[in-house]
Every structure is written in structure tokens, then in C-alpha cells.
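C-alpha cells for Pirin family protein. Go.
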Amino acid sequence: MSNLDREASLTVCGGRGFVVAEPVRELLSPRHVRLGESTEVRRLLPNLGRRMVGAWAFVDHYGPDDIADEPGMQVPPHPHMGLQTVSWLHEGEVLHRDSTGSLQTVRPRELGLMTSGRAISHSEESPKSHARFLHGAQLWVALPDAHRHVEPHFQHHASLPQVTAPGLTATVILGALDGAESPGTTYSPLVGADLSLAAGTEANLPLDPDFEYAVLSMSGEARVDGVPVLPGSMLYLGCGRTELPLRAVSDAGLMLLGGEPFEEEIVMFWNWIGRSQQDIEQAREDWMNGTRFGEVKGYDGAPLPAPALPATPLKPRGRVR
């Protein structure tokens, strides 16, 4: 899914001025957002207190939703620029279409990675015949300025490397963890990993002290560095860590997100990441005029119109409020 919030606002993120250079334990609560008629997500980034973790700039957690008698996810064609989208499922399927001609069904623990670069549009929907439950996360990675105009493309990786320990399986979604490296293309130093823990497991996960990290709880109950983290919440951990203590109270699913603090300030509005309000204004004009972002073929429905730009000028606010 993407940002379908019709009350979209301009946000400036990034810069190292507010990076926490030492370990912290900052629990982030979600904002509940309705996407369409049948889906509600828990938005963890951007958050009122924190807007980025490394290059990770947007995190939605959704489900598990019972869609046995529902159409499920139905996200009409919409545009992106300056970012990568990461589709990650624990249950269900998502059919991806985009303006480069990609058509791919993404299933649980498969990587659907779309690099928008200069401009792309796509749709996402549950197949007509779909599983009963839908549960997953949608994440964005901001592209650094040197790469934000690359040619758009989509990657699908059904098999990803894993790191295992007694009671723990870590699937490497992006970047590298403990010597295992994802085949997904990245443009800045970062890591994303899916952690499955059996009840009673205690483990220490190796980390890079130069990265800042956060852990999103997908399911179950776990303690991350001693802090209880429940589904739909995220614990920001700061930098300076060489390992992360984990303890599973029940069977639990977590996502580890991290990366080098993102040096550049970015502007996020709706489904675009730019560097200025002018970038966003041009993107909106191009989308509404039907230029630059291409056409998604095969989706049964009209593209989404862009929300109006706010009347107030953009005011840079940095990584945290």
C-alpha cells in the first residue's frame, strides 16, 4: 500500500542534526489511518516524534485483517518519485502492477521492491481469489540525491538469505545482517530484516554501531533490550549498539530497520519525496496532467487524483519535532 491519506501534508525530514548518537529506548505509538473503505493501517513513520530511521522514511503496519468476504487491498494507480517501496507480507498476497509493465504477485516473506527513481506509478490489490487474512508492512526508503533520478524498476525476490540461532530466524530483506546479504538493490547503507522468534527465546542480534535502528512489532509479545514491544508499535534504539538483546514472551514477529543516519533533508508529500516544495509542485502538476509517471495497464479503475497542496509555505523541521 501507499499513502492514500487525503489530508497529506508537507514534511521535511533527514539531516544529522538530531541523530541520537547513543543507545536509547524510545517507544513510538502509531497513528491510525484509513486507506480506502476496508483497510486501516498503523503509521509509525513519519511519527510526531521521529521522521526517519536511516533512509527508512515511511512505515505502515496493517492487519491481520479477515478479508475472506471482502475485496481486501484495493489501491488504485498512484505515483511515486525519489524513493523505494518495500512490500512485506506475513499473510495474504498482493498483486503489483506498475508503469514499467511489471505484473507480480507478492506472497509472504517475499521481497517486492519498487525503485521509483525519477517517476513511476503503480497499483496494488488483493487477487480476486485470495487468502482469508492480510497482514504486512509497507515501507519506503528515501533515495539519496545522487540516485533519486535513476530509471524506475521493480524487483521480486522469492528467496532471501537467513541468519539462524536457537529459536530465532532472521530473514534479510535489504542490506546485510551478520554476513548474510539481500539481493535487493540499495542506494545507501541500511538493513531491513524480518525476525521470527519462538516463545521463550533469548538471543543477542549483532548490530553495526554506526547505524541507527528501530524495531517494529508485527505479532506476539517480545522484549527488545528489556522494553515490552507489542504489535503495531515501534521502538527507536538510536546508534552506538554492537548487539541487541531480544526475548520472546510468546511466538513473536519483529522487523529490524536500520541504516546510517540520512544526511540530506527531504520533503515528503503524499507519495513523493523531493528536496524542495518546487519538486513537489512539479510532481503534482505532472501527475494531474498525465505526464512523466507513465500508465498502469490492467487495473480496473481510475487513477488516484493528487491532494491539493497546502496554502502555507514549507518550513524545514529536521528529523524530529
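The longest helix spans residues 277-288.
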